[in-house]
Amino acid sequence: MNFLNRAKDIQNELIDIRREFHQNPELDFNLSWTVVRIKKFLEAEGIEYKETSRNGICGLIKGKGEKTIGIRADIDALPMEDKKSCEYSSKTKGRMHACGHDVHTTILLGAAKILNSIKEQLNGNVKLIFEPAEETTGGAIHMVEEGVLENPRVDAIIGLHVEPYIEVGKIGIKRDVVNAASNPFDLKIIGKGGHGAYPHSNIDPIVISANVITAFQNIISREIPPTDPAVISICTIHGGTASNIIPDEVELSGIIRTMTLEHREYVTRRFKEIAEGISSSMRGRCEIDITEGYPCLYNDDNMVDVLKKSAEEVIGDENIVKLQKPAMGVESFAYFSLERPSAFYFLGIRNEKKGIVNPLHSNLFDVDEDCIPVGVAIQCETAFNFLNN
């Protein structure tokens, strides 16, 4: 079966749907319009679904067997201004689909339409997982807790993300670790304020903070193997009100990114030890809040093999980019990858001739919509091959 031709047959319909989503971006779990539009499509195709995780949706295409594959798309947008000038620019001020989730959602709907039309040929089931809040706290963890991977039990799951550094018509595949784990943090360094001319009478939290910040970088440069990526970034510092007043406290925030469970545990433990140790040694104290953000995203070798073979059938091996390095960005699909064998890949959207060159999370972000049938076909081919071979 030529899934790419099937996808091209409905390309105009899918482009219209994608532009609807792009014009009506919604945030976090507050996705009432988006959810209604997805439901409308599924109902028109006769696909059963249930609501989950505060505006998440799980559709089900029932084939002839017990084997089940999941396909996931994230559906939320970002709180930023759309500065593109085109017919489908965002209609809502301060909201924009700047990360391509409108495309992800459209591709899953297109795959659903095609796979549902051939369900009698499927030796198993397809679960359609529409995840809210990927850009914030992630709906995936709630969907897993609510049993989205059960009844019927999902045996494997696939997902994709648009990638502006890969040419349209191509995809990128990475084995093993694909994305980092994230631990956002807030750190308060507490001293004793007073006059800047008499520092000996005070406990200066700014000086303590400077020593703590410098010491944090030694964790990365001297305690983590240089072959293994890890990051500690201080992104905000707030302290003081005047040039002659030493403040009582300084507040810092930032992120920790690591690539393995072991390094995640080690770096967060050392972070606390260093912050507390230096603060105490310099007569101050600290308060630490480290959030357990998204985990590492791992690709399963067997599922990558299925995906790669399927993609070769759709676009040819010459259009598959073998990615060598993981990304320091995070992805809530990681919660699914911890539960089931997974394959997550990157869909090329770049087209310099059309001016499609802007990065993710940019006010000018857009995609070459010729990526849509490619994504649909690869999702369909992978699901079909997993269930039938």
From TrEMBL:
Cofactor(s) this protein requires: Mn(2+)
Domain Peptidase M20 dimerisation: from-to ranges: 185-276
TM region(s), chain numbering: none
Native source organism of the sequence: Clostridium homopropionicum DSM 5847
Positions contributing to Mn(2+) binding: C99, H101, E135, H161, H361
Any single GO BP term: diaminopimelate biosynthetic process
SUPFAM superfamilies: Bacterial exopeptidase dimerisation domain (SSF55031), Zn-dependent exopeptidases (SSF53187)
One Gene Ontology MF term: metal ion binding
Domain of life of the native organism: Bacteria
EC number: 3.-.-.-
PANTHER family: METALLOPEPTIDASE, PUTATIVE (AFU_ORTHOLOGUE AFUA_6G09600)-RELATED, PEPTIDASE M20 FAMILY MEMBER
Details of cofactor binding: The Mn(2+) ion enhances activity.
Name under which the protein is recorded: Putative hydrolase YxeP
InterPro entries, alphabetized: Amidohydrolase (IPR017439), Bact_exopeptidase_dim_dom (IPR036264), Peptidase_M20 (IPR002933), Peptidase_M20_dimer (IPR011650)
Pfam family, one: Peptidase_M20
Keywords linked to the UniProt accession: Hydrolase, Manganese, Metal-binding
Keyword rRNA-binding applies: no
